[in-house]
Give the backbone structure.
Amino acid sequence: MRYVIAAVLVLLVAVVETSVLPSFRVLGVHANLMLVLLLSWAMVRGMEEAMVVVPMGGLALGLMDGQLLGAAMLALIPLVLLTEIREARIIEGEFLLAVLLILLSTLAYEVIILIILRVTGETVQWWGILSRVVVPAAIVNALLVPPVYGLLWLGSRDLRRPRPL
Amino acid sequence: MSSRTGVWTLAVMALAVFLLALSRANLLGPLQNVVLTIFSPLQNALTRVSEPAADFVSDIRRTDELSDENQALRAENERLNAEVARLRENETRLQQLSQLLQVKEAHPDEQFLAANVFAREPSNVKEMVAIDRGKRDGVREGMVVVTEGGSLVGSITRVYDDYAWVTLITDPNSAVSAMIQESRAQGVVSGSYSRRLTMEFLLQAAAVNEGDMVLTSGIGGAFPPGLVIGRVSAVESSRQEIFKDVTVEPLASLSRLETVLVLTSFTPLQLQGP
């Protein structure tokens, strides 16, 4: 059941990301709600579910965006790898870690998309990409973490329910 | 990294690369066409609904102008009622259709296909919009897209049976051979990650002034000559540089596209090197 809910959620986010979000630019970029949702999912609900939901998200986005199918999926892989940092416990507090990880995931996502574009024959302007796209996108995505993370945490009561003895 | 994560990474990477290869060979077009057929009405509705909100957010940022504009809007709101709103919507639609007709009359030899914009590319490194016309309507890769006012929007870069993606002229990968209408000086109009259009390769000796109109030159064969791109909004010259730094403001409102025209009668040339 949880994966059905996840599938519906990622499809809805893919629709919103290709229709609503491009109209709302902050710092010259728009938010990557899919990335924020999937990272929050991994942080709140754990790696096991993230390993199923992240490819779902990549597929949903790839089916609706203008890029090659598979590009978004490939760009989302580092998200799961970065979530493993949680195990190292370098920062106390899951929420702060989520903010840190969204900054790194955004960097990885944008760079991988650019590499795919370059490999498929497009001209990529590496100069200025960090200041014009990556840093603003990381900040905008970080601003989205609190509401998305909070909603997911509230909606994950099943994980906090005491197990019967 | 745990061995389970390692296996997962390899498996998902292999799947993604496999999908990329199939997609590059245009084998997944029918699947994407089906998905867009299902979701495009929802995308279209959300795009239309979100535009007023997006305008509102954009207005908030212009705080200096907000006070005056707020007063004007308040006065306007008092006069408006539901009936007037409905009539204004009809009037807008009529104007769009009238502009379409004017473009067709201005280019009697050209054939246009009207299309609605229903989605935008979510990535911050690409500038693309999706339209509700595809192969079945005669749309092909490379076809040129203009606004209902006749100014250049971009070109078709991906086509499915019923839908197509248009790469806008503001896309960082876009380059359009262009000329200044007044002086006929030629250059290339390119997009960038800041959504700014710049005209490159204009020599320091070229006569360029703010407000000059920029048109397609037709060189290269990818775009027909004479299409309006925009106006020169800034010119910077430096004796140390070979070329001028020219900024172009697109005439079309590329962030608020609703209806566009696909120029179906123009076939772009695929020039080969010597």
Notes: Chain B touches chain A through 56 residues (CB under 8 Å).
